[in-house]
Amino acid sequence: SIHLALTGLLITVISLLPGVSGAGHLGGAVAGAVAAVLLHLHRFGSRPVRVLALASLLVLAPAGVFLLKERSDRDPGWKPAIEKADQETFADLKQRLEKLEKSQHALNESHLEELLGIHPNRRDPQLLREALDELPDLIEQFRDAADHLDRMGPLRSEQAEKQRLAALDYFQKRADLLELIQRHLKDKMNWQNQEARAKEVIRAQGRWRRSREQ
After folding, report:
1. CA dist 104 → 64, 110, 152, 203 (Å)
2. How far apart are CA 111 and CA 132, in angstroms?
3. Segments in the chain forming alpha helices (H)
4. CA distance linking residue 71 with residue 68, whole number of Å
5. Across 52-61, 69-78, 85-94, 166-175, which has the greatest mean pLDDT?
6. 170 within 8 A of 205, measured Cβ to Cβ
7. Distance of CA 124 to the CA centre of its chain
8. What share of the chain has pLDDT > 90, as a percent?
9. Environment class of residue 208 by beta-carbon count within 10 Å: exposed (0-12), middle (13-18) or buried (19+)?
């Protein structure tokens, strides 16, 4: 009909514009035509044909996604788009992670360094109460951040995946260290023998920071 001809002409013209994927429009047109045929068979075909058409319709969308992923994995032209999408996905979370790290750093400077640097019997009771009040929530936030990082992977962008893995390693280690600090403060234990654990976390933190600078 005239409407179909005009629609086809419009799609063709748009596909020729700069920055518009002609292959994408062609793929959509082919998929739409296949879906239209299957819908027609499902409506007017015999019972076996209707069942087969319905099954094919259910498979059509996942098959399209699979083919698109296969093409994007093999075609270098997709790499900039994948990099951009993954970096945007990571950007909002990165702000949250940096804010959380600043909160930990502030507590470390205001309370933990002083409390852990002296004998347990000489720790300031007020500072100790405040630190023990803040630590559970901070530990939970670090655990939640690590869980989020774990669930969102793996990312397809090599650079974004390096950042994710470095952040995951650091936030897991930091949560473990904060729990260890909490236990030492509660049980009035000396911290001097745990310096190796603290240095391991600092190294993980450095790897995460370097991954953001690359």
Report:
1. 45, 10, 23, 16
2. 10
3. 2-15, 22-44, 47-74, 79-107, 113-116, 125-151, 158-186, 195-213
4. 5
5. 166-175
6. yes
7. 41
8. 43
9. buried
